[in-house]
Amino acid sequence: MKDFLWLIPTLPFLGACILIISGNANLPRRAVSIVGCGSVGAAAILTIVIMIDFLTTGQIPEYTVIVNWFSVDNLSVPIALHLDTLSLVFVFVITFVGFLIHVYSIEFMHHDESFARFFAYLNLFVSAMLMLVLADSLILMYLGWEGVGLCSYLLIGFWYEEEKNGYAARKAFIITRIGDTALAVGLFMLFAELGTLRIQDILTLAPQQWATGSTTPVTICLLLLGGAVGKSAQFPLQTWLPDAMAGPSPVSALIHAATMVTAGVYLIARMNGLYVLAPQAQLWVGIVGAITLLIAGCSALTQYDLKRVLAYSTISQIGYMFLALGIGAWSSAVFHFMIHAFFKALLFLAAGAVIMALHHEHDMFKMGGLRKQMPAVFATFLIGSASLAALPLISAGFYSKDQIIWLSFASQQSNIWFFLAAVVGAFITAIYTFRMVFLTFYGEAKTSVSHMPGNLITQPLVILAVLALFAGFIELPHTFGHVTLFSDLFSTTLPPVTLRPNVESHEWIIQTSTGLLTLVGIAMAYYFYVIQPKIADDIHASTIETHRFWYAGWRFDSLYDAIIVKPILFFARVNKHDFIDKLYSALVELSEMMSALFSRSQNGILRWYIMGIVAGAVIIITFTLIITP
Amino acid sequence: MILMILILVLLFGGIAAGFSGRMNTMLPRWISVGAIAINLFISLWMAAQPNTNSSPWLLQLKLNWIPSFGISFHLALDGISLLMIILTFFLGIIAVAISWNEIHFRVGFFHFNLLWVLAGITGVFLTMDLFLFYFFWEVMLIPMYFLIGIWGHENRQYAAYKFFIFTQASGLLMLMSIIALYFVHGQATDQYTFNYFDLLGTSMNKQTAQWIMLGFLAAFVVKLPVIPFHTWLPDAHTEAPTAGSLILAGLLLKTGAYGLIRFILPLFPEQSAAIAPVAMALGVTGIVYGAVQAYGQTDLKRLIAYSSVSHMGFVMLGVFALTEIALQGVVMQMITHGISTGALFIIAGLLYERIRTRDVTQMGGFWKSIPVASVITLIFAMASLGLPGLGNFVAEFLTLIGSWSANKTMTLIATIGIVFATAYSLRIMQKVFLGKSRLEHHQSLADLTARERLILLPLVIVIILLGVHPQPAIDLAKDGLQKTLNREFQAPKEPKIINPNYQTLTVPATEKGVHHE
Q: Of A2, A151, A421, B218, which has the maximum CB count within 10 A?
């Protein structure tokens, strides 16, 4: 099967090419849907075939070199794909969840006049992301990395007539590119130090070249972290993601679940061998994760827009993944990535169905009572929320997040702050998740439902809901079943986590207490938003300043505006006519002035000339007398 | 001989086009297309020949011209110059095609100038005699002055003067340096010659070498342009007709880059290493300054012009990094920038033909009415911000990764400069094609015609090809660049390359050809 590996990223790319070249008008919608969904669907089927192949034989294609891209001097860049279990999990999520999102989009975008353009971008997005996770060299990964950035720009700004969508799109592209700069510099350093950019070579060469903790790997890892932080919307570059909601809902689902924001997680997991050599940098990965999960969680508590709550929840959940990477719980991070992809795609798609049903109403406070009106959407949304809030035992999110919380306590590389952040974060997650559920689906209806979702929308929701419930069972904790199907996948690709001595006995205490905390959070949300909504209003009124601060995403936007964007724009505006040019203009004016001055002396009046000659003669004679002794 | 044919075809083609313009306005166009197409065909054919020589020189032609002063008509071609002349003829055809409907008056004289500029550029890329080099350097300049001054936009006189004075002043400094080098070499060896290969490795004291190099450098950095000598460029590019902007950005700037690689590095290796930090700093300043300036502009052509300043900063950075990878990046940058910026100027020209303005604040929301133009612009905007998969990425990536080992700080700043490139490239898209449609003022906006698609499509194909398969171009330039860096630059072995028949050509005939045209 491995000979067909190259088809996985190529198929969606071809789909995109067909759709772009055929243009908007020429293809009927049915054909567009077939090309758009078919290409991704075929890639998903191929992935599943390869997966089955792998699960039955244990064989996995290492890599397939396709062609030479470019080579200069000692830098040689082949276009080669590398598939191991880590990339396999990512490819599976991208193609499978991506496919469901495509199917959903057929109905969701049905009335949009740029139907073909939408599917072209979606296909391109999936293709770029597949390239990113399959790339054998960091340069090829960078191609996917930038391709993802481009597609996010195109899709966030898909409805381009709105000025603010264009702004959000540019913001996403530019901010992630700031991170990419760090990544690029990281590549330059890696190449200068190791003379190669092939990932497998780097991972074998690095331990031979560098001692653990020496400056070079630490610097490189921090630079790579910079790239990851941009793409994955982590502190301090998280500000683009909430605005990215400007795109259509399937785009949000794609960005948040299957593609784009998980790229950073993949990058760090992929380069695990480097981070093992750079414990200081790895600690920073954890710190970034811990900070992000808390600040994004707090912001999620205060949002009105349904999709913005979900956006902040993504930032926060990716924070968990970063935390897991930071404490060496590599496979837990990937596990949470996969489960998160299922429930977050589900939540965004369900939210999209709600928003579409309510005439593009985004404000949760204007929703309500949808439980009875849209039962299918309610049921699936509830399952997704349970998974996001990590409802104990029955949701998949519980198993993935619980593992991270437990390891943030037990891992050798963790510390008490990480553990506290993870626990507090879990509590906040439970509150904002169910605040969202109760506001949207409970209470009285405030906006009438105009449009019921059809099959193409509900079926992907149901499939994702099943996964969001049951996918967790492939990895159960020691205290409860002890299944390690998922982490076994990574026995050769990712290092295992080292536990502190004698902690195993605490595992059930921590699980029970975080489980209880989640339940308390849900109960609190129920109390505040269903039983006694007045209290929520009172709290809101008494903490209005904090509320505003959190609502504005801790005002990072204003900060960056003030210290970076405004000064540059000010300079660009003031200097529109280029001050350097003024120097040359001054030169021109000076010579014109001199010319005017001297031409005045040539006035044709004889007595002036005589005057001039005499004066000149006097001056010359005087000077000669002074100089000669 | 082929090399001389390339130049003669353009010179005679120009004269023919000029005269035929009196009879018919279509004739000059077809003559120009034909002349350039012949050259393009020849140069592509040469590129297809496998190079069996051990030397990087593929072809050479050496004729005596004014032997008493050691001036010869000496042309030679290696991979770098071959790439450059292919680019010249490729963009040359496009320049003629894009002027098809834009130029209405004095059509013959226009095409005369166009072909003569191209002849000058071709000469510059091929000459191995410094006197002849200066001659061609001037041949480029004067017709370009006319192109801007006669067929340009509203402020064309000013722009043409400015262009002329900047390049002429710096060119004179180069002439002084050429003559100084001539005498220094002559006094040292008693052999007075302008031959490039003889002048390589001229022994002179450091002070002299430094001054002579600065003279050369002046001409090249003004042409490139390097900040703070860039201010002629926004005016010239903006005011020139589309074909003029295309040739300025696509080709004339490249002669500066070519000069750095061909003359500064081999003739003054120690001095180039000595000024490398300053040169790189200027390049990097240009990258950031140009990008910020581009962002601030409201005139579309001016915006693109400043983006050229930014992109040419990479050339300065890469040349003085003095590594093979960076130099390959520079050569790629010369080609890809020529194509991507040329394409953007063409689009600006097409928009101007339709709405009679270059002011982006009066544009917006054009995507719906001109989707094809929008997608093509998107591709070139992405090329301009260095998206992998398009040629410019390969260029900038090679330049940066090759410069890292030479100077980390400068490379770091240059990399950050790419973020600014993102900002101004996206601004083009936003201001012109996205946002609310501003079409009520100028109701009808036709999408690209067949001719316009035919012009832009090859550019799209080439920029993608260079992005996914740049190796042929890299291989062509490789030998010359390696020799330059290893200071093994030598004259082609004469008997092996020169066809003896060429030398039997009588000298006066050639002299006549060159003088009287």
A: A151
B285 touches chain A (CB under 8 A): no
Q: Which residue has the tokens 């996914």?
A: B468
Q: B86 and chain A: CB distance < 8 Å anywhere?
A: no
Whole-prediction pTM: 0.91
Residue ranges covered by each domain of chain A: 1-136, 160-257+264-270, 280-542, 577-627
- The pLDDT score that the predictor gives to residue B500 is 39
Burial class (CB in 10 A: 0-12, 13-18, 19+), A629: exposed
- Tokens 């992301």 sit on residue: A129
In A232-271, where does DSSP find H-type helix? 240-243, 249-253, 263-270
Residues A457-496 pLDDT 10s: 888 889 999 988 888 888 888 777 778 888 888 877 888 8
Tokens of A61: 């294609």
User: Which residues from chain A sit within 8 angstroms of residue B436, using beta carbons?
Assistant: 161, 163
Cβ within 8 Å of A, B 405-424: 405, 411-412, 415-416, 418-419, 422-423
Task: Let me know: does A183 contact A145? Beta carbons within 8 Å.
Answer: yes
pLDDT tens sequence across A548-582: 888 888 888 888 888 888 888 888 888 888 888 88
The whole-number pLDDT of residue B506 equals 34
A506: Cβ–Cβ under 8 A, 6 or more apart, which residues?
A409, A410
Determine the pLDDT at residue A428: 92
Q: What is the pLDDT of residues B55-79, one digit of tens each?
A: 778 888 888 888 888 888 888 888 8
Contacts of A69 in chain B (CB under 8 A): 468-471
CB contact under 8 A, A174 and B231: no
- State ipTM: 0.89
Contact B401 A188 (CB under 8 A): yes
- Which of A77, A571, A577, A578 is the best substitution to test chain B (most B C-beta atoms within 10 A)? A578
Measured between CA atoms, the residue of chain A closest to residue B372 is A23
Q: What angle do CA B288, B293, B299 make, to 5 degrees?
A: 145
Query: Is the Cβ of B474 closer than 8 Å to some Cβ of chain A?
Result: yes
Pick from A146, A575, A578: CB nearest B387:
A146
Q: Which residue has the tokens 């990339």?
A: A87
A 10 A CB-CB count for A481 gives 11
Q: Contact A70/B471, CB-based, under 8 Å? A: yes
Paired with B129 in beta bridges are: B195
Separation CA A136–CA A134 (nearest Å): 6
**Which parts of chain B register pLDDT below 70?**
51-54, 440-443, 488-517
pLDDT at A357 over 90: no
